[in-house]
């Protein structure tokens, strides 16, 4: 048996699976939950979960195995997985392996048999909490007594650990589109490539001058992990591009864009992670269901004087889900128009961006 012990001392007992480190090395991270009923593979390989322990509210996970072509990244920085029931076997005749064998290969520790409903309700009531995965309950309680919440803070911002190490090009017959990679999902790149662009992908710390040197028709700011307020140097780079080039910001890219204009972000109580979040366009009043994965939001009151107006808002809690600039060709969304997983009805955001480039 093993335990997930939260910072407040609440413990959840389960069984180990996957690849656990040596006994003297703890597994700790921010414990979050996702309510999507399918798409566990895309979630596990989404680099926006870097440094986190991911809990699935869907009770059975792994029932269609693991398919290499559906991964959203080639590397994995997830700290751990928590499930109610781990399905045995590959579950699908064309699966490449099982979920557990993937966890073994990628050194991801997991806990199964956890009461994920109780865990999710506890997080919803008390807010997102750091947790530690240990063999004994006493170990977990002692860990938080000795370390405190500072234990989950990385030495380097997670964006710099998930971004590409060097720039690269994805061929296309159309114009060059720059992508600033904060931990980009592959499906964002697929959605852009399918619209004919030649993509030039840059590391997160690339300067504005280096991006403009390739003469791109536009810039996409990708999704990524962590606290956006911890990246002031990237926000400064982006602020130098707002008036020069059309920009699309997605998730972390949306938040960085807000900060670059002088606005502020704040941490949500337990984040938005799932595939059924209703978002409304404030101009057309159209409502769509969206895929989301973020723990921070843009403070709407701080947008005054920035030139940005709120275009999309969340119907559950009223938070900002998208912005557009009143003077420049800049569009941002907090949710994931590329889905993977989730509803695919929001790809129109990419089409709107294409129109901005004309």
Question: How would you describe this structure in keywords?
Answer:
358 residues, alpha/beta, Glucose Oxidase, domain 1, ten-stranded mixed beta sheet, seven-stranded mixed beta barrel, 31% strand
Write a short abstract of this structure.
The chain is of the alpha/beta class.
Question: Can you describe what's shown?
Answer:
β15 and β16 (287-298) form a beta hairpin. The protein is built from ten helices and 19 strands. α8 (232-239) crosses α9. By secondary structure, the protein is of the alpha/beta class. A ten-stranded mixed β-sheet has the order 10-12-11-13-14-19-18-17-15-16, with helices on both faces. A seven-stranded mixed barrel has the order 1-2-8-6-4-3-9. The protein has a two-stranded parallel ribbon with strand order 5-7. Helices cover 22% and strands 31% of the residues. The chain has two domains: 2-152, Carbamoyl-phosphate synthase small subunit, N-terminal domain (Glucose Oxidase, domain 1); 158-356, Rossmann fold, CATH 3.40.50. The N and C termini lie far apart (59 Å). The mean pLDDT is 96. It has helices at 40-44, 99-105, 116-126, 137-147, 158-162, 186-193, 208-212, 232-239, 252-260, 348-356, and strands at 2-6, 11-18, 27-34, 52-56, 60-61, 80-82, 85-86, 109-112, 129-134, 168-170, 176-181, 198-203, 218-221, 247-250, 265-281, 287-298, 308-314, 320-325, 330-333.
């Amino acid at each position: 048996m093993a335990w997930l012990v939260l910072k407040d001392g609440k413990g959840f007992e389960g069984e180990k699976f996957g690849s656990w480190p040596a006994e003297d090395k703890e597994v700790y991270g921010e414990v979050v939950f996702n309510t999507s009923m399918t798409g566990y593979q895309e979630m596990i390989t989404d680099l926006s979960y870097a440094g986190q322990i991911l809990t699935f509210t869907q009770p059975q996970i792994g029932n269609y195995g693991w398919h290499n072509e559906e991964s959203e990244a080639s590397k994995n920085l997830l700290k751990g997985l928590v499930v109610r029931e781990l399905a045995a076997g590959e579950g699908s005749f064309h699966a490449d392996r099982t979920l557990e064998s993937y966890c073994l290969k990628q050194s991801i520790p997991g806990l199964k048999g956890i009461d994920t409903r109780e865990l999710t309700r506890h997080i919803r009531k008390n807010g997102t909490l750091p947790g530690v995965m240990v063999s004994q309950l006493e170990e977990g309680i002692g860990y938080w007594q000795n370390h405190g919440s500072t234990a989950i803070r990385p030495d380097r911002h997670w964006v710099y650990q998930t971004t590409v190490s060097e720039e690269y090009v994805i061929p296309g017959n159309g114009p060059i589109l720059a992508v600033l990679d904060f931990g980009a999902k592959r499906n964002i790149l697929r959605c852009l490539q399918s619209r004919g662009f030649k993509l030039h992908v840059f590391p997160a710390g690339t300067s504005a001058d280096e991006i403009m040197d390739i003469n791109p028709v536009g810039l996409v700011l990708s999704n990524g992990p962590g606290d956006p307020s911890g990246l002031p140097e990237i926000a400064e780079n982006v602020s130098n591009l707002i008036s020069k080039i059309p920009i699309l910001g997605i998730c972390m890219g949306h938040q960085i864009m807000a900060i670059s204009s002088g606005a502020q972000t704040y941490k949500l109580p337990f984040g938005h992670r799932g595939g059924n979040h209703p978002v409304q366009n404030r101009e057309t009043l159209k409502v769509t269901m969206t895929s989301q994965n973020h723990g921070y939001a843009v403070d709407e009151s701080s947008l005054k004087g920035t030139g940005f107006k709120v275009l999309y808002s969340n119907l559950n809690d009223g938070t900002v889900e998208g912005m557009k600039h009143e003077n420049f060709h800049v569009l941002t969304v907090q949710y994931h128009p590329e889905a993977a997983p989730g509803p695919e009805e929001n790809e129109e955001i990419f089409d709107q961006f294409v129109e901005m480039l004309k």
